[in-house]
Write a structure and sequence with these properties.
437 residues, alpha+beta, Phosphorylase Kinase, domain 1, Phosphatidylinositol 3-kinase Catalytic Subunit, Chain A, Domain 5, 4-stranded antiparallel β-sheet
């Protein structure tokens, strides 16, 4: 990969949006680059911090790398470039708002009154007074019942994606002012991911990073003490305890995004290594910092995220798929999956298509396929397992349906991690179906 370009930004003039950008991460300027609005973010001075180890944070570098990690993973994220302005390393972020004020931060939308929402919040919130941490039950209640947020497509998935990726990049400041939606042309939609400047170790000097990596136990400890912005009840959620989250939607998202993270780690490493160490005498990103950033992501993936993926598969029954495909754990998910893959019951079963569709929609069973081994197991909720040959003698019609689905799914085997597919077609309280009767 070619070296990242560092842009000279001194000659670009401020624009009409200059002075409208808030936040506490450092000074900002609005400038125009080739007729488009960009936001320049300066490194924040550490003079007000207790015992600072550096004069300025590396927040612009963190914003740049963190944002590109999100983009590499296929998540809609604002565009960023690194540059020099007023003799400082800065990050310029393309303004994604068509009009000034189009961005609505989650913290402002949370203030909208709704009777049902108010009642839910009264019964769900804990008594903690820590205003810095975000109570997961609070934000999830808003995503479910807030009259605006509940109608925005994919907002829950975006929330959980940010929880997972922020653990990877050590961003512990995804507060409700650091993500949001856009209101444009009379409609609300998700805004791109933005504000990643708290990622990585932006207040730690290179010598401290090198010293941490020198001792394996200290390096592991640095990961284990990583914090998130969230709490569960009165308990702060550390990154190492992310699998304490017990929300099915979290594991549904994990089954989709964590395999992508694993697949894209080499690309992430190549991107980080392509950042220059220096530019015109200014430090950009040292080899020590590059090494620390990537190895810390590897460590968090192995220690924190892979156990989440295992739990998603084992306890919640979500299928691990390649890319941003559909995770399958229940009847509706399975039907949605077949629809996405343009599965047509009548094409597969002919005149028996209606009967086949009825069986899939109403019978309770599980199916596990291993495409490489050629094995198929059908299990009813009495715990009895059948091969297709055994099922043929028990229930010919049902066996016909299973065979048709299996043949169709073989066409999609490339989507399944480890060439294995499991579908759990069950209700919340499944009834037993005994195929021996």
């Amino acid at each position: 990969m070619d070296k990242i370009t560092i842009y000279e930004l001194d000659n670009y003039q401020t624009n009409s949006r200059n002075g409208t950008y808030g936040g506490k991460a450092g000074d900002k300027e609005g400038i125009d680059i080739n007729g488009e609005a960009w936001i320049v973010k300066y490194p924040k001075s550490t003079r007000e911090m207790r015992k600072p180890l550096v004069s300025y944070t590396t927040a612009p570098l963190s914003e740049f790398i963190g944002s590109h990690v999100y983009q590499i993973l296929g998540i809609d994220t604002h565009d960023t470039i690194l540059g020099i302005r007023n003799n400082k390393l800065v990050v310029a972020c393309k303004d994604f708002c068509k009009t000034e004020g189009a961005l609505r931060e989650i913290r402002t939308l949370k203030n909208i009154y709704n009777k049902e929402l108010a009642e839910k919040l009264e019964t769900s919130l804990s008594s903690t007074s820590d205003s810095h941490l975000i109570d997961l039950r609070d934000i999830l209640t808003h995503l479910e019942y807030n009259p605006i947020l509940k109608n925005i497509p994919d907002i829950k998935e975006r929330f959980w994606e940010q929880v997972i990726v922020d653990v990877l990049i050590n961003n512990n400041d995804r507060n409700n002012g650091n993500w949001g939606v856009l209101y444009e042309d009379g409609n609300f939609r998700l805004a791109p991911v933005f504000d990643n400047g708290a990622a990585f170790s932006n207040k730690t000097p290179d010598n401290k990073l090198a010293e941490t990596m020198k001792y394996p136990e200290r390096f592991v400890q640095s990961a284990d003490t990583s914090r998130t912005i969230y709490r569960i009840g009165d308990k702060e959620l550390y990154a190492k305890n992310i699998s304490d989250i017990n929300e099915p939607d979290f594991y549904r998202t994990a089954a989709k995004i964590i395999p992508v993270i694993k697949e894209k780690m080499n690309e992430i490493q190549e991107f980080i290594n392509s950042i220059p160490e220096q530019y015109n005498g200014l430090i950009v990103c040292s080899e020590v910092r590059k090494d620390f950033y990537f190895k810390s992501m590897q460590l968090k993936l192995e220690r924190f995220l892979e156990p989440v993926l295992a739990k998603a598969e084992k306890e919640f029954g979500f299928v691990t798929l390649k890319g941003n495909d559909t995770a399958v754990s229940n009847r509706n998910d399975f039907m949605d999956f077949l629809n996405v893959k343009e599965f047509d019951f009548r094409d597969t079963f002919g005149s028996a298509g209606n009967d086949a569709e009825y069986i899939i929609k109403n019978m309770d069973f599980s199916m596990t396929l291993n495409f490489e081994k050629g094995s198929v197991i059908i299990q009813d909720f009495g715990g009895k397992q059948y091969s297709l040959d055994e099922l043929q003698t028990k229930d010919k019609d049902f066996c016909l349906v299973c065979k048709g689905i299996i043949e169709k799914l073989k066409e999609f085997s490339e989507y399944f991690e480890d060439k294995t597919f499991s579908a759990f077609l069950e209700e919340n309280q499944p009834k037993r179906t005994d195929y021996e009767d």
